[in-house]
Write a structure and sequence with these properties.
The chain is of the alpha/beta class and 250 residues long. It contains ten helices and ten strands.
């Protein structure tokens, strides 16, 4: 049976989630961050439902440790105090999904957990080919969230960065197979990020993302080796096709 870890400092929420999910899944619960991490190491659950605000270790600290233990683990974040910035922070750490407690129905929760489990089943095990990894780089939180969610649903392993320095750090730590890179960002534009990625040895593909028609910048991106240019607002169907082509070329 599929095993799910529920970690929340509110006992009533742990009990409620256990009751909702236990008819289909084996559920273990934790009421603080340290207990959650210990249970994760002990049980290696296929899915973890993780509250952000907990005593001893908060959800972000636990997520970072889980990523060290198992970079492929499926972790769904639960938050009662959600902000776009917070969502982007946890998605950049590899969270599978980000759920706001308020207004989340029982059927919604069951559906999301079921979808995540289907995605886990589709992803080859560590003994086979790993899921293709994509790094989304954009300073707009809405765009990062949209693309991260869409690409995760397509079966890819997605990380996100809000600017160039964060993107370079993530790519240095674990080079993705594809980067979706916005041109206009604070501190460092997409052209400079692309140059620095190549300078630090990145050999994967890059898709340019832009709302601008600045021909000079677009030409520079293409000369550096951008596979294609995707305009904003993003056509997700076209993006899915471009991603498939880019990964095949990579």
């Amino acid at each position: 049976m599929v095993k799910i870890l529920v970690a929340d400092d509110e006992w009533l929420i742990c009990d409620l989630l256990r009751r909702i999910l236990s008819p289909v899944y084996e559920v273990v619960t934790a009421i603080n961050g340290r207990e959650a991490l210990a249970l994760f190491e002990q049980h290696r659950p296929q899915i973890t439902l993780l509250d952000l605000v907990m005593p001893e270790m908060d959800g972000i600290q636990v997520l970072r440790r889980i990523r060290e233990i198992d970079p492929e683990a499926s972790v769904i974040i639960l938050s009662g105090k959600a902000t776009d910035a917070l969502e982007q922070e946890v998605r950049a750490l590899g969270a599978t999904d980000f759920l706001r407690k308020g207004g989340l129905s029982v059927e919604d929760l069951r559906g999301i957990v079921g979808r995540v489990w289907q995605e886990v089943e589709r992803v080859p095990s560590a003994e086979g080919q790993a899921a293709k990894s994509i790094l989304v780089v954009d300073d707009e939180p809405v765009i990062r969230a949209l693309l991260s969610k869409f690409l995760t649903q397509q079966g890819y392993r997605v990380r996100a960065a809000p600017d160039g320095p964060a993107a370079l750090a993530l790519a240095r730590k674990e080079p993705p197979q594809l980067v979706i890179l916005d041109i206009y960002m604070p501190e460092m534009n997409g052209v400079e990020v692309f140059r620095r990625l190549r300078a630090q040895g990145y050999q994967g593909g890059v898709i340019t993302l832009t709302a601008s028609q600045d021909r000079r910048l677009l030409q520079e991106m293409l000369e550096l080796g951008s596979v294609d240019v995707v305009g904003k607002p993003v056509d997700l169907d076209r993006l899915a096709l471009v991603v498939q082509v880019a990964l095949a070329l990579a």
